Amino acid sequence: MRKIKRGMEKEKDINNFVNKIIVGDCIEELKKFPDNSVDLIFADPPYNLQLRGDLWRPNQTKVDAVNDNWDKYESFEHYDGFTLAWLEECRRVLKENGTIWVIGSYHNIFRVGKIMQDLGFWILNDILWIKTNPMPNFKGTRFNNAHETLIWASKNKDSKFTFHYKGMKSYNDDKQMRSDWYIPICLGNERLKGKDGDKVHSTQKPEALLYRIILSTSNQKDIILDPFMGSGTTGAVAKKLGRNFIGIEKEKKYINQAIIRIGETKTLAEEFLKYPIEKIEQKIPFGSLIESGFIEVGEKVFSQDRKHSAEVLSDGTLNYDEIGSIHKISAKILGKPTNNGWEFWHVERGGKLKSINELRKEFRERFVGENH
Known about the structure:
By secondary structure, this protein is α/β, with parallel strands linked by helices. The chain is 32% helix and 19% strand. Strand 9 and strand 10 form a beta hairpin.
């Protein structure tokens, strides 16, 4: 019995699946994964487009639409059952602080969203991928469908999920990254084509879309799962950004192309994949500098122009013409309601003035750095 149990545990080691494309049905294959084992999921499931017959352009040329068998379902109930099954498995394998992205169109995304909420996923955002070069509405009977919707959700409402807010703000010219993403559809050299010149996959997603998703909501070495791997976009971008990937795909015609594509992808150098802008420095109270001897009780602190000075008291307050904190006294001198005293006050070291903020940095390096 113990041997069987050890064998099952080995089979459910997530490292057995990392950086591989698994051939098979995602629902069945996901059952082999251990609980709480992947950091981020990107899912591009069948949309159930319900196309009726061929689609033709006004010049009588046939549109290369999505008419693959994998996108055909008997009914909404059949599609909902399929959606529930794969989402249940995804939620099970997702880490407690992990997140999932699901992309879809008006044909399916509302049904998917309802099922996600029923399962306990906590929706964080819906993102509009606005296609800058969408396919026209050839019949002229509806508005041009120029976007797809992505649902971004955490495993539950209490998840401490990854989001590189500052990095994405910098990425977006120092403006908050919005929920409308203007990205062209996959064309040109990026579009994978077979020897016959036809596109390999009818719904290949642009790398720019996955780049933004993976960059914003995961970290280096994280495991990114794509249960509908298709032509390998998720795996290629994950590898480029120094992440691990797991792909599942049942259509063998896509897998060879995906393997070649990912194999040719180079990982960016590690030093280019850090997020220094996101680093949150531990707060150091002024009193800590006194306790540690960086500043002495009774020592004078000065404004940068030396026009103002104050004495440091044992409780961390300053004695100016009244008693107050480094912030309160500097604000009074400047005639402001508030001010950052760390930048205003300086101490004399070696005949030169040094800001107490520099002392705080030295304190962090010596004491905080050793413990973290």
